[in-house]
Amino acid sequence: MKYAQTKEVLNQLVADLSQMAMVIHQAHWYMRGTNFLKLHPLMDEYMDDINAQLDVISERLITLDGAPYSTLKEMIEHTAIKDEPGTYSKTMQERLEILVVGYRYLADLYQKGIEIAGKEDDYSTQDIFIGFKTDIEKKIWLLQSELGQAPNLDK
Fold first, then answer.
1. I need a labelling partner for 108 at 20 to 30 A (CA). Which of 41, 80, 81, 102 fits?
2. C-beta atoms surrounding 97 within 10 Å
3. What share of the chain is helix, strand, coil (3-state, %, to 5)?
4. pTM (2 d.p.)
5. Residue 147: how many other CB atoms lie within 10 Å
6. Which domains are delineated in the chain?
C-alpha cells in the first residue's frame, strides 16, 4: 500500500492533535492566577492553531486514500498524550509545563513523520510535517520563555 507508514503517522497525529486540543482547553478553562488576562486569550490562539493543524493533517490523510479517526473513542484509544481530569489546584506554571510536554511529543512525532514521508517519497506530506514541526518548536520556545527557561529543543 502506497504511503502506508506516512498514513499511520497522519492518523496518529489525528488522535494526538485532538487530545492536545483538549489539553489546551483544560488549561484555558481551569487557569487561575498570575498572567491570567494574558494567558487565557493566548490559549484561544493555541487551540485555533492545533485545530488548523488537525484539519490539514486529516485532509492530507483523506487525500492519500486514508481514513482519519473520527470518534472520541478512537481518539482516546490511539493518543499517546496523557489524559487527566481538570482541576483548579494546578498552578499556571504546572499548566504551561503540561503544554510543553504535549508540544514536545508532537514535535517528536512530526520529526518521525518527516523521516517516514521522506523514505516513502511523499514530499508533500513531508513539507506539511516540516512546517508544523517548526510552528510547534516556536510554541515550545514561547512557553519555555514564559517559564523562565531555554527552549531545550534537543530534549
1. 41
2. 16
3. 75, 0, 25
4. 0.95
5. 14
6. 4-146 (1.20.1260.10)
